[in-house]
């Protein structure tokens, strides 16, 4: 077996590992290793992403997020051209029951501009609740949450998950809340919204990059109480 074939065999074996049950941390390490170790490593990774997202249309997983993140940082013009050609609008197909355009949100998350994406997320939630038409209020009441369409809430959550290695999103926050027996103080602490029992100040005390704790983003104003976020965690979308 010549050297190139051996390399291709090693890449194939590593990709098989990626698609099996390994942790997100291990997936990230393997993807990075493939991208820098083998001549065609990045091409193989791009092929895997195309297979998963365009050809097979598999359910989203953290692997898709990691593949896109690593490839988007490639210094290869060929890889960047191909990535743009296949995924010019991102890796998430956008759905909205109210014809809301989520491409601007996807554009921000694709370049990991979490701070601006958080601002836009809050505006879009208010828009979904009809506040852009009927009110000058720019925050949600708990009674507004039931008005949020499931398709739209799912899309917003999926966008956050897919551009954060599955770390961020309302569903991630809800999972942490449930694992802590619905204890709000434990949730705030674990996702980094409080420090020693004191709420962090917006925006400078929050963490706007991938190194933030799981569930840190997007933000939700807990200073107004827990009724709104409790209603969000009880939304029907999480039970579909």
Short summary of the structure?
The chain has 240 residues and is mostly helical.
Structure description:
The protein is mostly helical. It has two domains: 3-87, no CATH class; 102-238, Arc Repressor Mutant, subunit A (Orthogonal Bundle), CATH 1.10.10. 56% of the residues lie in helices and 2% in strands. It is built from 13 helices and two strands. The chain has helices at residues 3-18, 24-37, 41-55, 62-72, 77-86, 103-110, 114-128, 131-134, 142-145, 150-162, 170-179, 184-190, 227-233, and strands at 194-195, 198-199. The radius of gyration is 20 Å and the shape is globular. It starts with a helix and ends in a 7-residue tail after the last helix.
Portion in strands: under 5%
Mean pLDDT: 91
Domain tally: 2
Q: Reading side by side through the largest sheet, how are the strands ordered?
A: 1-2
Q: Which CATH class of the largest domain is shown?
A: Mainly Alpha
Radius of gyration: 20 Å
Q: Kindly report the name of the CATH homologous superfamily of the largest domain.
A: Gun4-like
How many β-strand runs? 2
What is the CATH topology classification name of the largest domain? Arc Repressor Mutant, subunit A
Report helical residue fraction.
55-70%
Which segments are poorly predicted (pLDDT under 50) over 5 or more consecutive residues?
none
Shape: globular
């Amino acid at each position: 077996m010549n050297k190139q074939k051996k390399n291709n065999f090693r890449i194939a074996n590593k990709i098989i590992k990626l698609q099996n049950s390994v942790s997100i941390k291990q997936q990230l390490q393997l993807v990075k290793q493939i991208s820098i170790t083998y001549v065609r490593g990045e091409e193989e990774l791009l092929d895997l992403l195309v297979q998963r997202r365009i050809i097979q249309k598999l359910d989203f997983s953290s692997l898709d997020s990691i593949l896109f993140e690593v490839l988007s940082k490639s210094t290869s013009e060929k890889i960047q051209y191909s990535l743009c050609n296949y995924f010019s609008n991102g890796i998430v197909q956008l759905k909205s029951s109210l014809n809301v355009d989520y491409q601007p949100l996807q554009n921000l998350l694709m370049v990991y501009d979490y701070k601006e994406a958080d601002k836009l997320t809050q505006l879009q939630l208010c828009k979904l609740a009809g506040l852009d038409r009927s009110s000058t209020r720019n925050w949600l009441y708990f009674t507004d949450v039931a008005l949020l369409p499931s398709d739209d809430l799912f899309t917003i959550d999926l966008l956050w998950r897919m551009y954060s290695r599955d770390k961020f999103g309302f569903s991630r926050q809800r999972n942490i809340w449930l694992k802590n027996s619905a204890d709000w103080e434990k949730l705030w602490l674990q996702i980094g919204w409080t420090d020693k029992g004191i709420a962090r100040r917006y925006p400078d005390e929050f963490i706007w990059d991938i190194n933030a704790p799981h569930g840190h983003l997007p933000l939700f104003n807990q200073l107004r109480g827990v009724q709104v976020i409790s209603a969000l965690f009880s939304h029907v979308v999480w039970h579909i």
